[in-house]
Design brief:
Layout: E1 8-12, H1 19-28, E2 32-37, H2 40-54, E3 59-63, H3 69-83, E4 88-91, H4 106-128, E5 135-140, H5 163-183, E6 188-195, H6 201-206, H7 208-216, H8 230-237, E7 248-251
Parallel strand pairs: 1-2, 1-4, 2-3, 4-5, 5-6, 6-7
The protein binds nicotinamide-adenine-dinucleotide.
């Protein structure tokens, strides 16, 4: 039911904290991976892990920046050359300054929008042009595209999750619905996952108070583990979700239901 055999999935941001277990899960279901990521170092590690476990034909990839149209074109051309047509797209990139509300410049805001919105739009449109049959796209939104960060969760010295990030994720939610309608007649489904709190090991180690606050803010009383968005992504890519499009699946321990 969740089988992805014979399908090529383009994973943007696939070398990241959540992207790496997503790639593992896609390959476990038989999918071929094309990983496009900004970091050459992380990309090499991510491709290497998949190839070591699933064989040398299971994955390839390229360094790219979703904010640059030429780089998107080059990545899509490289994926087509390597694997032929595409069947799926996962977009796990994001743009954020990490700056406090009062420090954010207009240029900062525009730059984040370029990555979260314009880049995601271009990547989806160009990917769809390479899909010859039914396809599936999964956009990474966030709980902070659905609700605002609670400033009281952030201990002194920590900057709350910044406004341009959540605004971009909220826009991505709307683009998901728009593109689901646009691509539906071609049999291409477009959905989003909205992760909750998945702080990486550095944050876990350096901010125990913050982790406690995040854990108390969701129904399961804990933060998410890196592998816990992968099942939802595989589900949405697979035939198990063949009549699901235009949806946002929260994978947040119930954070947004309180
Ligand atoms: N970790 C969380 O708590 C959390 C919560 C909600 C949503 N998300 C979303 O999940 C997705 C994955 O997050 P993550 O925690 O794995 O982050 P991460 O930083 O570990 O991974 C993101 C990956 O995207 C790549 N990337 C960043 N900017 C890029 C660009 N401009 N062009 C191409 N690649 C770029 C990075 O090199 C990295 O490998 C993101 O969309 C993020 O917004 C994460």
């Amino acid at each position: 039911m969740f089988d992805l055999s014979g399908r090529t999935i383009f994973v943007a941001g696939g070398a990241g904290y959540l992207g790496t277990p997503i790639c593992d899960a896609i390959a476990t279901q038989g999918g071929k991976l094309f990983i496009a990521d900004m970091s050459q170092e992380r990309l090499d590690v991510a491709i290497g892990k998949v190839k070591a476990k699933f064989g040398s034909d299971s994955a390839d990839g390229i360094v790219f920046n979703i904010g640059e149209e030429d780089a998107i074109d080059a990545a899509i051309a490289a994926c087509s050359k390597r694997f032929g047509s595409f069947d799926g797209l996962v977009n796990a990139t994001y743009g954020s300054t990490g700056k406090a509300f009062d420090d954010l410049s207009a240029e900062d805001f525009d730059r984040a929008n370029r990555l979260n919105l314009t880049g995601s739009f271009l990547l989806a449109r160009k990917t769809a042009s390479q899909m010859t049959g039914p396809g599936s796209m999964v956009m990474f939104a966030s709980m902070y595209g659905l609700v605002a960060p609670n400033p009281s969760n952030y201990p002194a010295g920590m900057t709350p999750n910044p406004i341009e990030y959540g605004a971009g994720k909220a826009g991505l939610v709307q683009m998901t619905r728009y593109m689901a309608g646009h691509f539906g007649p071609r049999g291409i489904r477009v959905n989003a996952v909205a992760p909750g709190p998945y702080p990486n090991p550095n944050v876990i180690a350096s901010h125990p108070d913050f982790i406690g606050n995040l854990s108390r803010s969701n129904m399961l009383g804990r933060i998410g583990e890196a592998h816990e968005t992968a099942g939802s992504v595989v589900f949405l890519l697979s035939n198990a979700a063949s009549y699901i499009t235009g949806q946002v699946l929260s994978v947040d321990g119930g954070w947004t239901s309180w």
